Every structure is written in C-alpha cells, then in structure tokens.
Amino acid sequence: MILSDYRKIYAFKGENMRATKIEWVTNPDGTRGDTWNPIIGCRNNCPYCYARKIATRFTGTKMYPNGFSPTFFPERLRIPYKKKKPCMFFVCSMGEMFGNPYPWLTQVFKVIEETPQHTFVILTKNIIDSEIWFLNQTLACYPNVWFGVSVDGIYTPRIYGGSGKLKPDYYLWLKHAISVLRKVKRSGRIGKAIVSFEPLLAPIPSNALSDLAEFCDWFIIGAQTNPNRQPGKQWVESIVKIARVCNIPVFIKDNLEWPEKIQQLPT
Ligand code: SF4
C-alpha cells in the first residue's frame, strides 16, 4: 500500500468501514467496495509503507493503540455481517493478515466463511505463514477469497529474513511466493489468485512473469507516490504483454502515469 491510498481510506472515527477510493476494490454492482481491518500492523519494514507512517504517528489513539505493532480488533469482526448486498472487502489494508496468531486468523476466516455473499481480497508478503494457514492449518475452502502476493521487485520482507534491498534474497522470496500462490490456488482453497505489483520498483524477471501467468487470475499494477516514483515503461509493458497473451485481466492504477486506461476486473 502506498501513500495516496492511505490518505484516501484513513479515518479516525467509526469502525473503520467506509467505501474506499482504492480503484480496484469494486463491488459486483460497480460501486466502490470497502476496506476491512480486523487486524492492523505489520512487522515487515518496507520503506514506502504509509500505513506504518500513519500508525506510528497516531500511536496510542483508539485506532492505533499499539502503533504499527500487529493488533487485533475483535469488535470489527461484525462489520461484514452488516452488509447484505454483495461487497468486495480489501482485508487488512493497514497491515498484514498473515504472520499473526492463529486464533486471530481463525476468527477472521470464520467471518469470511459465514458471509459467502462477499468477496475478500487478501494480499500478503508473509508467504510462509499463508502457506501454513491455507494448506495445513485450515481444512476449509474459501471460494470468496481472492488471495495474492504483493510484489515490488526489490524489498525482501523482514519476516522472511530480509533486511532491505538485498536482491538475491528478493529473488529467492519471489520464487517461493510464486510456488506458494500456485499451490494455494491449485489446492482449491481460494477463489482467485492475484498479484499486486504495487509499488512496482524494479523489473520483474520474465521467467517469474511466465510462471505467474500460468495460474493467476488478476494483475494489479501501481506506482509509488509521495515521493512519486514511476516504474520503467518496459517493466509495465512486460507485465501487460504477458497478461494479454495469457488472457489475464490487468488493472493499472491511476497513480501510474500510463497512456492507456487499462482497468480490467476478473469475471
Ligand atoms: S508488507 Fe505491507 S503493510 Fe507490511 S510494511 Fe510492507 S507495505 Fe507495509
């Protein structure tokens, strides 16, 4: 997640449910979906993370009692039940779902199971924990979960043993991330597999893109904002090109200065 998104979705009051302005979070009827943050915080240390900046700034408030340390808000579990109309929720937009205690995840996924009319989008960099959760910890299937990995091209998540811009580590992580996403998708435990290339900070190796294109259902591409850092033209072109060849919908966010408006959603 990046600055502009957090500015748009950030709210101090209420239960942290409001229509998000994140363009790709779209309800089946075409209206804008919601963010849902039963867990906030994350132990990765991505330098561009604006959620961390906000949470750190407002540490000790009702919204961020523990700053950006992972925190569970059980009172927010009731939010999806209140929406009768099918809705898309971007889950944990202010942190990471995985890498947290399983009793937290159990409660969140119980809500997901009990509200099958909704779609829940979960993006992660904590691939080890997500693999354990989907393939070992739970025996349930979540057809209404669109699960994906966030790929920026540079930063190895701290939880994976990374400490910043260590390129060899990153490629190891990426390879592992692709294998986990593929396994989870093919297990039938989730509805769709997606990749968010946001912020796209480096070219993605063509073999990684080919591997992803074999089984993914959606690619999202975005730029870093504040400071604005646009990805190389060829980096974006290579993703769009393979998506076209393999018939994968692509959503290019408005923060990416791209000449053509490409904002496709999975069917
Ligand atoms: S993984 Fe996501 S939430 Fe965690 S520090 Fe990185 S950008 Fe922020």
UniProtKB/TrEMBL annotation:
Taxonomy, superkingdom: Bacteria
Name by which UniProt lists this protein: Phage Gp37Gp68
